[in-house]
Amino acid sequence: MSEESAIQVNFGRALPLFPLDAPVLLPQQVLPLHIFEPRYRQMIEHALDSAGQIAMAVFAGDAWKAQYHGRPPLRKAVCVGHILQHERLHDGRYNVLLQGVCRARIVRELSPDELDGKLYRAAQMEPVGLEPSDPEALGRARQRIGEMLSEAPLNRLTVAEPILEWINNDDIPAGALLELVSFAVVNEPLLKYRLLAEGNAQTRAQIILGELSHLTRLARLAAAQHPEDWPKGCSWN
Q1: What's the CA gap between 117 and 15, in Å, rounded?
Q2: What is the pLDDT of residues 143-178, one digit of tens each?
Q3: H-only helix segments in 113-188
Q4: Residue 43 near residue 120 (C-beta atoms within 8 A)
Q5: Run of H or E including 81
């Protein structure tokens, strides 16, 4: 696995937007999607007829709940994804596997008049995170993540074993590893968006290490309550 994706993105043209209420994709990650809305079925059809790329975006605030079928505001950071596999079902729905290619930022969303009858939204974008990373700093972060997940209490996490396998796989560069680890250990939507919007790999590494430290503190607080002694059905909050 190379540090940089071999898939090229043409930022000279507008890219389709698929907004959701939380970040769901980072570079290197693979996301299964079930596409059923007419506008997004059309989006997949058009993407498959071109470069096979769409941008996973994030709604800004809660306006989307009332304006979902309109054009509710979007946050600037997106992840451009490439369709790895697709299955068109008999009724026009799609099952898709989307691989994250790179971070990008919305520069300008196309107006309805510019969409030429397209049902979905699209935007001009610019790439994010093109500056080179510090291999030594990322290597130290990789080592520290491995140490934290090898020790109690984090070694009891379900994700600890697969992440340690990634860490011990020298074919996975440190930058790619951070992307794979990010959503495995981060669940809070605002923190996920920080990881999506942050172009600097060393800063993302510190965000991940900070979240692992936070999980360590929570696990130790929970253990201090001696849950093994609780009556059945009780829990500590």
Answers
A1: 15
A2: 999 999 999 999 999 999 999 999 999 999 999 999
A3: 135-150, 160-167, 174-185
A4: yes
A5: strand 77-88
